[in-house]
Design goal:
By secondary structure, the chain is of the alpha+beta class. It has helices spanning 12-15, 20-24, 26-36, 72-76, 84-89, 99-103, 105-113, 145-148, 221-228; strands at 43-44, 63-71, 95-97, 119-130, 134-139, 152-162, 171-177, 180-185, 191-195, 199-204, 210-220.
């Protein structure tokens, strides 16, 4: 039986086929984004605060976020009460929507339609921007442990939205586990899917920002195990 740590990256085609909705709607979503990109307001982020959208980083390290939506389940429910029955009761209407969601209704609807069964895809969703010639050095995401005690994981999905490749350069995500290091480029309409407790780093060598949609998916370890072994 395969273990979660056997994978640096998960594959949407085999592990989360429901995410095809994202790829199918990318042209229209990208057009909506381009028509409104100048209205998006960015907040500086920092590795010390991870993906906490309510905190501001003390300095600009080249990583910025702009929120779309997040789940009321995560913000309102005592995590000690987190279980599969609670997850199943929370539907698309149980989200907290930020101004970007109202400005980008097609993107919002597409994410909601893409939610894999028995998961919550909008724990935290937002734009993630990495400045030109910027490195977010090796780290693990600090938001997973509080869910683990109930058997849940946060799987992070980075969906390429606005990336301009340049010859001889790359923008990539690299994951290291024990002696196994794997690198994948950040590309438009491609997804890098990983567990945030795997050590990773993000690098943008381009002269333009790398913009992806970052989606945090809550999934029980048993459901993830079923998916990677089916």
């Amino acid at each position: 039986m395969k273990k979660i740590t056997d994978f640096n990256f998960f594959e949407w085609e085999t592990h989360f086929p429901e995410l095809y909705v994202l790829k199918e709607n990318y042209p229209q979503v990208k057009a909506e984004y381009l028509a409104n990109k100048d209205k998006i307001r960015w907040e500086n982020m920092h590795l010390d605060i991870g993906y906490n959208l309510h905190q501001k980083a003390p300095e600009d390290v080249g990583w910025k976020m702009s929120p779309l939506m997040m789940s009321k389940l995560i913000t309102l429910l005592d995590l000690d009460a987190l279980n599969m029955e609670a997850v199943k009761k929370f539907t698309d209407s149980d989200a907290i929507y930020f101004p970007n969601s109202r400005m980008l209704p097609l993107l919002t609807e597409t994410i909601e339609k893409a939610q894999p069964k028995n998961t919550i895809l909008k724990v935290r969703n937002g734009f993630s921007l990495l400045d030109p010639k910027t490195v977010l050095d090796w780290h693990v995401d600090n938001d997973n442990p509080k869910y683990l005690k109930n058997g849940f994981l946060i799987i992070r999905i980075l969906w390429g939205m606005d990336i301009e490749p340049e010859p001889g350069k790359d923008s990539f995500l690299e994951i290291s586990y024990k002696n196994r290091v794997e690198r994948r480029s950040s590309l438009n309409n491609e997804m890098n899917i990983f567990w945030g407790l795997m050590k990773h780093r993000a690098v943008n060598q381009y002269s333009t920002p790398r913009v992806v949609i970052a989606m945090d998916m809550l999934i029980h370890a048993n459901e993830l195990s079923r998916r990677i072994n089916s």
